[in-house]
Amino acid sequence: MVNCPECDAEIKIPADSIEGEIVTCPDCGASYELVKAASGGFDIKPAQVVGEDWGQ
Amino acid sequence: MSAGNGNSNTLTILYDTIRWEEKSLIEAAKKKGVETENIDVKNLTIRLDEESKKKYAGRTVLQRSVSYFKSLHATAALEGLGASVINPLRVASITGNKLFAHMEFQKAGVNTPKAIAAFSEESAAAALEEFGYPAVIKPTVGSWGRMIGLLRDRDAARAVIEDREHMFPLYHIYYFEEFVKRPPRDIRAIVVGDHVVAAIYRYSGDGEWKTNMALGGRAEVCPVTKELEDICMKATRAVGGQIVGVDLMESDSDGLMVHEVNNTTEFKNTVRVTGVDIPGQMVDYALALNKKG
Q1: Where does the record place the ATP-grasp domain (chain B) (predicted)?
Q2: Does A54 contact B66 at a Cβ distance shorter than 8 Å?
Q3: Which of B23, B38, B144 sits opposite A55 (nearest CB)?
Q4: Among B63, B80, B75, residue whose Cα is nearest residue B244
Q5: When you count CB atoms within 10 A of the terminal residue's CB, does the N or C end of chain A come out lower?
């Protein structure tokens, strides 16, 4: 569990999560990328979810 | 990129964001007892020299980078060092450009929308007079329906063309397609190896003429008929694809036509709607390729 830096809502990190996965805040919809925390768990950082040359 | 062992039971998955698709591939591999080396392309550095061949030769890489330019260049580097990248560089470079792909479809006799190209503001305007309205303007490189416009008349066309003249030079390459009369849906078919594994209809979102799921469209199962299979395989072979998504329209007058082949296809909605184990089949295909060496 981490708190959304935007709205402070709680974001659940599922048990099967992997580094690099995108999680979304259930309240404000902001997207974050999971990064390994020093503690061994996960931390979050703002995710790039769209780029000019992204998509299929 | 860490060393990895590059053996026949290891897959490298190259990504720039882990979406549902990438996670499902990692899980599918795990279920099959296959080790994956998951590499964020943003963290990838590759020495482009002979020495690096020892590290990369013989690897099978599933290219899942969603950024077209990163995907293209990382594929060039890895393939150049002897890795088997799915899909190969030729496929990535052709399918990423609508004009290049159009020419390959044309050469192979794949039914595709009529198109016209021009290379300046004046010639673009003249091309449209010849081509007629309505016409669709598409950037030669681009995805998710971005910057695709429906030009209903000369005034709309002039405005769009003038805007583009102030953009990056890539947008000064004018590529127009006929506006195909069709039902308010298109088809996304997923090809793995030598057959179509599943297909969906994608319906336009409310008030939207484009059918991209990214634009709010909805999906339904599309039966894989022999006609669909044949045209998809013809288009896939025309660009040399291994695992691709083929986008088609059902023209009222000309039947099925292919408008795009996607090199790093998304398949979440196709799995959701059809229940077909697409990630499992993709992993199987990559492993078989790995063993062939």
Answers
A1: 102-287
A2: yes
A3: B144
A4: B63
A5: N
What domains lie within chain B, and their CATH numbers? 10-93+283-291 (3.40.50.20), 115-178 (3.30.1490.20), 182-276 (3.30.470.20)
Low-confidence ranges of chain B (pLDDT < 70): 1-8, 213-214, 216, 293
Q: Chain B contacts of A19, Cβ < 8 Å?
A: 18, 38
What CATH number does the domain located at A2-46 have?
A: 2.20.28
pLDDT at B49: 96
Q: Give the single-character DSSP code of B172.
A: G
pLDDT digits (tens, 9 = 90+) for B104-163: 999 999 999 999 999 999 999 999 999 999 999 999 998 777 889 999 999 999 999 999
Interface of B with A in 234-263 (CB under 8 A): 245, 262-263
Enter the ipTM. 0.77
